[in-house]
Design goal:
The chain is mainly α. It has one domain: Cytochrome Bc1 Complex, Chain D, domain 2 (Orthogonal Bundle). The chain is built from five helices and no strands. Helix 1 packs across helix 5 and helix 3 runs antiparallel to helix 5. Bound molecules: heme C. The site of heme C (HEC) has 21 residues, from helix 2 and helix 3.
């Protein structure tokens, strides 16, 4: 029953999140549901595991990647939300 109760919360979160401003910028390269290879270079983020997405975003904060400027402003909470909503 616990799982069933959580479904509306998860749905509401994904709707809110996919139109949140800090996600809009990502979507221009990664696609609305993170289904594209950004700039033909990244992996398809929606196919990655939740933990992998969170790990990569934390790593990018101190990397030389193009992703540094997009990952740096994200809070831990935002990173976890992105990973939970878009990851496997
Ligand atoms: C200018 C285009 C662009 C924007 C905007 C962008 N990304 Fe990326 N993203 C990339 C590229 C290119 C890579 C591959 C970078 C690398 O491997 O160094 C990548 C990699 C990633 C990865 C890891 C995928 C992998 O290949 O391991 C994640 C997760 C990710 N981006 C999430 C995001 C999120 C979340 C945002 C918004 C906060 C965002 N990106 C904004 C271009 C972009």
């Amino acid at each position: 029953m616990k799982f069933v109760k959580n479904i509306p919360i998860i749905l509401a979160l994904s709707v809110t999140l996919s139109s949140a401003s800090y996600i809009t910028v990502c979507q221009s390269c990664h696609g609305k549901n993170f289904e594209k290879r950004a700039l033909g270079k990244s992996r398809v983020v929606k196919d990655l595991k939740k933990e992998e997405i969170a790990k990569r975003l934390r790593y990018f904060k101190t990397s030389n990647s193009i992703m540094k400027r997009f990952a740096s402003p994200l809070s831990d909470k935002q990173i976890n939300q992105i990973a939970n909503v878009f990851g496997k």
